[in-house]
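Lab notes, practical 5.
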Amino acid sequence: MVAVTLPSKLGGLARMLMHQKLLSEDEALALQAAASQHQSSFIAQLLQSKRLSPLQIAEAASHAFGFPLFDLNALSQDYLPAKGINAQLMRSSRAMALHSRGKNMFIALSDPTNLHALDDVQFQTGMTLVPVIVEDDKLGKWIDKLVEASDTTMQSLATDEDFGLELESEEKSNEPDPATLEIDDAPIVKYIQKILLDAINMGASDIHFEPYEKFFRIRYRVDGILREIAQPPLAIREKLASRIKVISNLDISEKRIPQDGRMKLVLSKTRTIDFRVSTLPMLNGEKIVMRILDPSSAKLGIDALGYEPEQKTALLHAVSRPYGLVLVTGPTGSGKTVSLYTCLNILNDPGVNISTAEDPAEIPLPGVNQVNVNDKQGLTFAAALKSFLRQDPDIIMIGEIRDLETADMAIKAASTGHMVLSTLHTNDAPSTLTRLMNMGVAPFNIASAVSLITAQRLARKLCPHCKQPADIPQEALLALGFQAAELDGSWQPYAPKEGGCESCNGGYKGRVGIYQVMPVSDEMSRIIMKNGTSHDIADQAQKEGVKDLRQSGLLKVKQGLTSIAEIEAVTNE
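Output from the prediction step:
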């Protein structure tokens, strides 16, 4: 076999086409020179010359390099990955993300010999690239379409197009004079609207605006996991921060200390989404985190939260009593607020007086008297609670018991004919009782006032469309906490599909609550009176049939709602 020697002056694609006898050496050199002269790509010059069609080039590249050939006409934008290639890099590298699976990203390109562009894409995404050959003309149209709709492009937002939404400040009377604000321009406002609306549509709970020295990124927290959504131009970070601060009634001239505010997005006449806004000065600007507060989440009903039937019965029985203290515990972001608001929504009746003290009040509930505590002005949880007791309350909700004074007031209120609901940051239900004792609350007060404690976590739900059976050895299931009698073959554990599908995020979609609902029984009260430990209380709870968090989580595995890996992560003991 005679070895074919290709001219070293020719670039990769030109050499490949000449090798396949689709171009002569002279034609390839001429096209390459023209591309250099006009500062365009070799493919652009080749297509302009009409020497070869886009399909011929794609077929030749696919055959030569062994990469699959794909027709972009069959692609739907809904199936594209949320985290792809940023707009600037898409244009410069002439590549777009098609699909991501695990650590692999399938990217569409027309020139697989452009190794420099591939390196740039791999550096930006941090993923292993799997090239897919496409026709250059279709690729160009898709890139233009994505760039036009991209979060990183401001020009498309500078039109007169309206999103049909309205951003409102919580206190319109405190709006700064628009004449003093250069940031009140349409592109920024519409960009913020788009970011907020996309977050709501994706089911995000938080939006993070993060400025760094070399880039500016926006991330959404979806199902408890942060995902990078966009990298807007670094130049707009200050305008973006200033506009958000204006709408949230914050001081735009103060950039040295953290600030907290609120804003709302009016979606329609019947639906408004509130946002809790927090700013934090950093080295390269102000980081802004917006917590999405959807009032409809408080009206989902207790059945939507994931309580087991016996847990639901115990909770409803406790909160429907005329007096007593019900505590909801768990780490930040475990859904405590939604659980409390769901209970308040159930109890909200014209015949009862409900008052809440929160920091801040997150979800407006008509018919409930909600107070924002303000430590700087002396309106603490304890001070608010003292005022509530002079306002003829039936039900009191305290956002969080942080100190002995608040704990004492809550227990006194629960012992004198009031139903009191509150939260604590503890790991499980039994340790909550010892935490109160460690705060200095007398054991007999705890035993007489606390009626029920709920500990909770949020676990990601498996996507119903792509979850797949998991083959797990029986020994491993026993080690996780399953009982031998449960492994009777009547149920099947499931696992997320690697990379997920177009309907989910990596095999998961949505979250479900995992609960330990522990009524404080007479025997538990006796243990508390004897200064028993949390282990003593936990042992007694097990004897009384109270499922701990791990047991409740394993029940969700049996029901096919979540995976064993997820339960291990959220109930790690």
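Observations recorded by the TA: Residues 1-8, 151-164, 172-184 have pLDDT under 50 and may be disordered. The CA atoms of residues 404 and 439 lie 6 Å apart.
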